[in-house]
Amino acid sequence: MKSIAQYSARTAYDPQCFVDVDLPDPIPGDFDLLVEIEAVSVNPADARVRMRKTDDGHPKILGYDAAGRVRAVGSAVKGFSPGDLVWYAGDLDRAGTNAELHLVDHRIAAHRPGSLSASEAASLPLTLLTAWELLIDKMGLKPDQPRHHESILIINGAGGTGSMMIQIARLVPGLTVIATASRPETKSWCENMGAHHVLDHRADMAAQLDQLGIETVDQIVLLAAPDKHFPTAAGIVAPFGAIGCIVPFDNPPDMNLLMGKSASFHWEFMFARPRLGGEKSARQGEILTTATDLVQSGRLRSTLARTLSPLSSETVRTAHELIESGQTIGKIAITKNLINQENKND
Amino acid sequence: MKSIAQYSARTAYDPQCFVDVDLPDPIPGDFDLLVEIEAVSVNPADARVRMRKTDDGHPKILGYDAAGRVRAVGSAVKGFSPGDLVWYAGDLDRAGTNAELHLVDHRIAAHRPGSLSASEAASLPLTLLTAWELLIDKMGLKPDQPRHHESILIINGAGGTGSMMIQIARLVPGLTVIATASRPETKSWCENMGAHHVLDHRADMAAQLDQLGIETVDQIVLLAAPDKHFPTAAGIVAPFGAIGCIVPFDNPPDMNLLMGKSASFHWEFMFARPRLGGEKSARQGEILTTATDLVQSGRLRSTLARTLSPLSSETVRTAHELIESGQTIGKIAITKNLINQENKND
Questions:
Q1: CATH: 3.30.70.260, 3.90.180.10, 3.40.47.10, 3.30.70.560. Which one for B2-123+277-345?
Q2: Residue B342 in this model has a pLDDT that exceeds 90
């Protein structure tokens, strides 16, 4: 099968960052789906994994988010048949989705919404699972369960995960959803995703909240630059509130800032659950199934902002370069076929 | 009223650390109980507050835990009458309980269990609320709701809070309760409080867990020396597990150690809730009422280890000195009257 591989940790500006290789077709294990990849999307996590590649002579296939079609199923697979359209966010410990064919444990995959194109669908799983696991499973928000006089602050709302978090937070009636952005186009994007208010995270956020008549925020999520934003977040989080974070700190944060408020801090690392394996990983299949329903009923929508094609070493490199610019809005997907052919293939 | 006051931040070895003073009797506000103090207990928090006293010429009364009898009630008080026996953990922002009379908002107080003496009762509220707010309200354990193949590790189980945490964790059927201690007498104390296993926190805890056939622990609480124990806790906490902490760090902890496990960190600061005031503080009254029932039915018991009397500048100073030795087991209470008179007064 055609695959996009890397052999060493190279900058995304290096034309040799990725190479097109031909590898043997993978054979599904008992619990696996063998999936024909139709579209993938690229996440900041892909870029972080790329830079950890050791120069051991073996090719590594990156790519986690995917939309595809089931070609074959393992002997223990339940609920999926060849021909089914699926989506999933993958597993850090297996070969990635930047390839013609891909193996995924069926318990972390789900039937994807037919109302989305392959590239629209591929844009969602990883950020959707990250947002859902943090806001719903850890921070305790529940769709359709009202919150009164409560608010959430999503720092860096225009990125892929921020865009999903705004939408998921808006599933909670009464919750005031505040996002941050720093440019006119990212501010508009956040409003378009459903944010009630958008702050500028380059200016004094406490002062901007004050102007909105909001003294403290119940839940705060740090999606970028946590070292910079943690002290601010600690200052504005409400007593008994929580701060969530999805990216590592460069330096240890002063956790004592949260003590007097009896506050909590939650990490969210999407790949922690697939790593558990078996039934413990199946929560991701459940979340994606719920999300499919929410997309079909129009309550969640794709955060796709830009599509590249075809799926090749050059488009993957370009996507990594864009991601690392820190200027992207929403998600970047790469389709196997040319964009104008995509609808015909769906 | 006779009161034990401090005027400046002095070491507990200084005979002038506390002084006996006579202050005007306090007058209850609308929501207050005026309480005749029968016994108090001393907590590490008292010692930390003592060292923060500024030398402003004004007397400060420490003491938070108390068992007493209601003498008068404010106009808005519901559920309490003069003569009622009460217990509570107090409010950092008001005068303390080391006095003949004390004011407390009735919403953070409760009727105390009649099965305990005043000193046994005074030993519980602060540590009980700390343990309950962390294990039940934050970490999600529930009495009588079974947990399977789950465990909790209570680092420093023989202290006042550790002793309550062991007992509260044992209210959860199926949960394996592991405490730590470092001396034969503290190990016995933890076993006596209900710990299934007791580790030595001065030796390799991961290796000791390994010998018990336990690879990871779901919930870990740091009750002392968090800088020393945090890296160990991060290593042995289970994926999606949580670390709770009740004492400040000397240096910022390396929170990234928890990221790959998608784990959580919870602060517990008992005085955060009284500070919220009004109905938001009433959760503490609820918890203490539940605890009274649990004590009456024999499911929770006092952690009192030593009683001093009478309540004076000298006994308060001695209690602070003992607390600061770091060698205490369970709780130290001080009764207003001589110990052998206590039962007659109850």
A1: 3.90.180.10
A2: no
How many angstroms separate the CA atoms of A308 and B237, rounded?
A: 41
pLDDT tier for residue B292 given thresholds of 50, 70 and 90: very high
pLDDT, one tens digit per residue, over A280-329 is 999 999 999 999 999 999 999 999 999 999 999 999 999 999 999 988 89
The domain made up of B128-267 has a fold known as Rossmann fold (3.40.50)
Q: Does B76 touch chain A (CB under 8 A)?
A: no
Cβ pair A269:B252 closer than 8 A: no
> Would an 8 Å CB–CB cutoff place A252 in contact with chain B?
yes
Q: Which residues of A touch B245 (CB under 8 A)?
A: 259
Domains A2-123+303-345 and A128-267 share a fold: no
At A108 the three-state DSSP class reads helix
Which residue in A104, A99, A101, A100 sits closest to A88, CA to CA? A104
Q: How far apart are CA B319 and CA A112, in angstroms?
A: 65
CB of A262 within 8 Å of any CB in chain B?
Answer: yes
Q: Can you tell me the distance from the alpha carbon of A192 to that of A258, in angstroms, rounded to the nearest whole number?
A: 32
Alpha carbon distance A254, A17 (integer Å): 37
Looking at residue A326, its pLDDT comes to: 83
Question: Are B262 and A267 in contact (CB < 8 Å)?
Answer: yes
CATH ID of A2-123+303-345, from 3.20.10.10, 3.90.180.10, 3.40.50.970, 3.40.190.10: 3.90.180.10
